[in-house]
Amino acid sequence: MPFEKNEGGKYIGIGADYVALFEKSVGIPIKMVTTKNWAESITYLKERKCDILSLAMPTKEREIYLDFTKAYFKTSVVIVTRPDELYIDDILQITDKKIGIIKGYAYGEILRKRYPHINFIDVESIKEGLDKVCSGELFAYVDTLVAAGYNIQKDYLGELKIAGKFGDTWDLSVATRNDEPMLKEIFDKAVELIPSTTQQEIFNKWVSVHYEKDADYTAILKAGSILTVLFIIMLVGIFINRRLHAEVERRKEAEKRFEELSITDELTSLYNRRYFNEIFPKLINSAKRENQNICFAMVDIDFFKQYNDTYGHAHGDEALKRIAKAMQESLHRADDYCFRLGGEEFGILFKGLSAKEAKELVESMRENIENLHIAHKQNSASKYLTASFGLIIKNANAVEDLEELYREADELLYEAKQAGRNRVITITASAIDKEEQV
Length: 438
Fold this sequence. Notes:
Distance between the termini: 49 Å
CATH class of the largest domain: Alpha Beta
Order of helices and strands: EEHHEEEEHEHEHEHHHHHEHHEEHEHEH
CATH superfamily of the largest domain: Periplasmic binding protein-like II
Shape: elongated
CATH architecture of the largest domain: 3-Layer(aba) Sandwich
Helix content: 40-55%
CATH topology of the largest domain: D-Maltodextrin-Binding Protein, domain 2
Structural class: alpha+beta
Largest sheet: 7 strands, mixed
Number of domains: 3
């Protein structure tokens, strides 16, 4: 609720009001099929035990067996926490927390793909999710603004709050079984026939504040002067608040630009060595908690001094920018990092991949650099600029000394140079297997 509910065999809520309008437009009775929860409703659609869902969001997986009408209801996605938690303006602030989300919800699938490192926990219902936040079993719960607001006001006032929101909007449509394509056409027309005024009435009925019909107008008139004064005070407060907010945002933006400058390499826009020293131990500790591999590669551009001597330092700087961009574009996850450690030396740091996946990632990066086709006639390894890589892969729990890990990667880089350059050298398969078993 307030989207929809099976209340003792009676269908109620926003969805029910729209279905009543659809039924009138279509001219055919629409019967409610009872299911235990949302996941079972999805299963029933797959198994063709029912024909439509009144309120659903399209995803690639669902489009295998469903068609979707144009959206007719939109709402924001929000984060619910206990009242003592701070406002969450960035979802990446809570990557180490447990976040509840209803099993089978479309935006759950979307958020998992967008934020693969957030610990989303499936719950069967909104009540289960909100109860677990109250008890501390979950840090937060994600749902729509409409559903979260309705349930907090109804059952959790003072116990829970909306602490932030995603930028996304949840666009809801009628979902129809795609082996009956006419259904989509029929319900598309039914959606078009609903006036915007009727849509607003349905929204107000379930979401807006309700007032008593038999109001005491005498009391209202007596309170009018007080309300007017309060209204003026509120307007002044809003004006002052906005000015303060604008100043705070301006300062935040200035501070943000200064953090960025202190951790970023000026030439390549990659992270600098200072940030490498800061993030290196943090990422290892994170991988230890999750019992994952930590992967670190030292990278050196082959014969780069000769390149500068031959083509000039201006061309050298431009080459470094292009190589940095190629390496950065090879990394696609939030916890994948690329650093310029100094001169033509770079570092690649990531976690959570198997030895095979790590090798493939770094090898593809090596190929991307050579495929830039930056001519280098002094390079004995290729006619283009290339790079050598020393890749160390270890289970994070086996790492005791950061300097030792750095030294091992540096030694592997030296081996890559000695072996002819333009290659990736890593530890042997037997050593990897042994460490991964540990």
